[in-house]
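hiii so um. not sure if this is the right channel but i have a protein structure encoded as tokens and i wanna go backwards to a sequence. like what aa goes where. can anyone help
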């Protein structure tokens, strides 16, 4: 018998396919790592304090700004755009020029945050140590020079001597702003919630015909007490606002234009050109903490994204609570109780096909069934006093979680069925032989052994649900949610409220922002944070699965 060549034997052994699969996995890992590295560099670099450069333009106009990007542009493209330029050097034979994207800030004065500057238009550049960057609550950053600090319209200090008192007054201003925010959001918010509950209680009594004079006096007394408490808080706010609005800082642009800015509208003032490495590191981590712990401002292009982080995590937790029992019960029925025939096979095919349905279809179903039908009927039955304003008959985090539970339930069903099928039949028979019922066998023996497979299904469900955006746009997610779904007001967990989501925040900042250039770094930073949130949720589930696997491994052997 003629033997094959060594190469034919090598192919017949299957080794090429092993190496091919290993190469594919390696390339995939490199691509994912490269993508994450790109996102991390583009996103996390946004929080580093960049030097502010003073440019001198050909018309002797001076301009302050941060260099954000640069690119080479062909001379033909510049001529086609109708731009005039002069060669930087007579001996320069290049067919391209470099242009810089400069963040000039001062949007309230110039109408724009960014502008492109050709290298030939920059006669001189310098980095003065006295230039200041002012982060404002409105209109973005301001770049200029400190001129004076005023209190009640009178000059406290001028020039360089105003720097130290400015930092002290700014710290006091931020403390006052935080106190005002706490009163408005928490204390007055709690009063508003109580007033609304009184209104709904009165309306319910009217609908039931039980709004008697005694009840009227009782509600009137409670309302008067709330109004008295509100008056006290209102006087506190007036005092705090009066103190907050006493300080003003006068700034000058590079061309000498003066701007008076109330400290109430300032978040941070710093001198990036005068910072050392230690100061820049402290600034960087302070900005990073603000990003993950604060609320957004300036159309989501400034501030933090804590509401989006909270909404994403809470929605995933609620989705997990809903999807796990439904998926496990369905898998138990299909594997343990249903007769294994044509109908069961068709159900399994339908379950597998549900996993391939586009997510937006689930969003439309959730809007029609959960929000309008189920939520609307719940409002008519249990919240008639609030009508026509909807309570549960409007998109909210409850319906978003149920919609995503419906979206991911096929994954949990398939994974649970696979886990149940791997449990040896001898274990079931042994449990039944010892006198246990079938339900007891399932609950005490089979399900604990299949729990790692159930957790695998939940991990896959979390990974898919956390990144979904399209269905959420229909059933509860919004651009900006003023109140979190959890707060200190009864009933503390408000499942009817709309919420923010990291995935939708990326879409909104990246494609709906009025200031695209300013928002671009936040898109990368938010994308990186979304990946980290998904990784943390998955690692938590994997840890639980591994512990369950170790616990029940001895029973499988």
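sure thing!! here u go:
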């Amino acid at each position: 018998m003629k033997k094959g060549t060594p190469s034919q034997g090598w192919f017949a052994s299957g080794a090429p396919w092993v190496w091919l699969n290993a190469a594919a996995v390696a390339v995939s890992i490199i691509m994912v790592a490269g993508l994450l590295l790109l996102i991390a560099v583009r996103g996390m670099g946004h929080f580093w304090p960049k030097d502010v450069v003073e440019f001198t333009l050909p018309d002797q106009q001076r301009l302050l700004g941060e260099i954000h990007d640069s690119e080479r542009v062909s001379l033909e493209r510049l001529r086609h755009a109708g731009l005039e330029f002069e060669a930087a050097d007579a001996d320069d034979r290049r067919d391209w020029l470099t242009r810089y994207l400069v963040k000039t800030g001062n949007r309230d004065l110039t109408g724009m945050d960014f502008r492109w500057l050709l290298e030939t238009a920059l006669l001189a550049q310098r980095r003065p140590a006295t230039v200041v960057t002012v982060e404002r609550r409105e209109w973005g950053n301001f770049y200029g020079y400190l001129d004076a600090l005023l209190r009640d319209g009178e000059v406290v200090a001028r020039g360089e001597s105003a720097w130290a008192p400015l930092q002290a007054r700014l710290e006091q201003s931020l403390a006052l702003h935080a106190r005002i925010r706490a009163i408005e959001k928490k204390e007055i918010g709690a009063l508003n919630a109580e007033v609304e509950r009184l209104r709904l209680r009165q309306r319910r009594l009217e609908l039931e015909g039980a709004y008697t004079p005694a009840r009227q006096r009782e509600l009137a007394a409670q309302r008067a007490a709330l109004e008295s408490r509100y008056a006290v808080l209102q006087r506190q706010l007036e005092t705090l606002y009066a103190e907050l609005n006493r300080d003003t800082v006068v700034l000058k642009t590079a061309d000498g234009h003066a701007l008076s800015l109330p400290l109430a509208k300032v978040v941070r003032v710093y001198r990036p050109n005068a910072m050392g490495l230690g100061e820049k590191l402290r600034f960087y981590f302070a900005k990073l903490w603000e990003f993950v712990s604060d609320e957004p401002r300036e159309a989501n292009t400034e501030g933090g994204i804590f509401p989006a982080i909270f909404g994403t995590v809470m929605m995933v937790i609620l989705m997990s609570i809903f999807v796990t029992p439904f998926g496990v019960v369905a898998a138990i029925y299909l594997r343990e109780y249903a007769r294994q025939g044509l109908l069961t096979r068709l159900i399994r095919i339908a379950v597998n096909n549900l996993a391939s349905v586009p997510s937006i279809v689930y969003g439309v179903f959730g809007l029609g069934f959960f929000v309008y039908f189920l939520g609307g009927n719940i409002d008519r039955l249990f919240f008639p006093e609030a009508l026509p304003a909807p309570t549960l008959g409007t998109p909210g985090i409850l319906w978003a979680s149920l919609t995503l539970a419906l979206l991911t339930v096929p994954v949990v069903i398939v994974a649970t069925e696979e886990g149940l099928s791997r449990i040896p039949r001898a274990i079931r028979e042994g449990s039944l032989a010892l006198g246990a019922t079938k339900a007891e066998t399932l609950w005490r023996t089979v399900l604990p052994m299949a729990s790692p497979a159930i957790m695998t299904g939940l991990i896959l469900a979390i990974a898919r649900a956390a990144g979904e955006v399209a269905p959420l746009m229909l059933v509860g997610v919004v651009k900006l949610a003023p109140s979190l779904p959890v707060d200190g007001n009864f009933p503390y967990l408000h499942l009817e409220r709309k919420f923010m989501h990291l995935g939708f925040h990326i879409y909104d900042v990246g494609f709906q922002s009025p200031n695209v250039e300013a928002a671009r770094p936040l898109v990368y930073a938010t994308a990186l944070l979304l990946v980290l949130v998904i990784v943390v949720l998955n690692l938590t589930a994997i840890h639980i699965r591994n512990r369950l696997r170790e616990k029940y491994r001895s029973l499988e052997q």
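oh and The mean pLDDT is 87.
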